[in-house]
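ugh ok fine here u go
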Amino acid sequence: MTTDTTDETIRTADVVLLAAGHVLLIERGWDPFKGRWALPGGRVDAGETSLAASVRELEEETGITVPAADVREVGVFDAPGRDPRGRYVSVAYTATLPALVPPTAGDDATAARWWPLDALPDLAFDHAYILAAAAAPLT
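structure:
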């Protein structure tokens, strides 16, 4: 019997890291959206919570470590079509640092940098929506 995996749901975690009126973004190193800016994040590994994945992905893609205790959930983002690769459901988290910390791009990120919240590039996926949801309590 063959299993059709076209409807398989992939679990991911994204991080909105804020500091001094800025948000940390990564430049994607591969498709989809290669070369576009996005929130740090990625797949939740087997046996891993989405919170643990968010902290891991943040460190892998930006070199910045934030304790899980300092991260709070923003929400679940599961709109069909939010990712052109298929059905991706993301739990987004946010944390705030007291000051900007220099990032170091790693993993699948070709660059990582802080962007002013009032001068953002066009973001990949639905990350502008996630960022707005995370920043809403701050405004």
